Amino acid sequence: MHEQERFDRIDVADIILRERLARDNRQWDEMAACYHPDSVVEVSWFRGSGAEFVAQSRKAVREGSVNFHIMTPPVVNVRKDRAISETPCILRSFSMMNGVEISFEGFVRLFWRAQRDGDRWLIAGLRCLYMKDEIHGRNPNRQPVFDEAQLAAYRDSYRYTSANLANLGIAVTDDLPGIDRPEMVSQLRAGELEWLAAA
């Protein structure tokens, strides 16, 4: 590995971690500064540009709710002025559902694209691979009650993500990459590698 590639990997990992930290801390200007003007974000509740993602993230903040991400260090691959990264992540939130205080965990892998812009790296894309998730009451004696038919209609890899967002009035599509549909996982990984190879 050349020394410049090592530095590039560090810079890409840094911009990824800065973006998530800024989002968790509701530092919207700092979050926006991490995105390339032509960036694309596709996650459970949003599809659009990086700038729009920041704006909608800001609007989605609800008083009294707590949301944050637990991430492992990004694994980065660089080719010329492009880079991709896959990062295991746990989505955590605490909120109210039908009068019950709930704890939510979503286990995902975040797929990032980064592009060199002058002397800096910026995020060019963010996609998510859904694995499993769960919801339970923070108080063991008070658990949320779900409609079984409604739960059964949701995909297994992001069933409780769908239920949690439905509680907030947000509908989730049925076509997100998840481990319950291996062909979609293969398509996601192939698409990231193809984008990198086009550098």
From TrEMBL:
It comes from the Bacteria. GO terms for biological process: regulation of DNA-templated transcription. It holds the Pfam family SnoaL_4. Coiled coil: none annotated. InterPro entries: KRAB (IPR001909), NTF2-like_dom_sf (IPR032710), SnoaL-like (IPR037401). Residues 129-199 form the KRAB domain. This is KRAB domain-containing protein. It comes from Sphingobium jiangsuense.
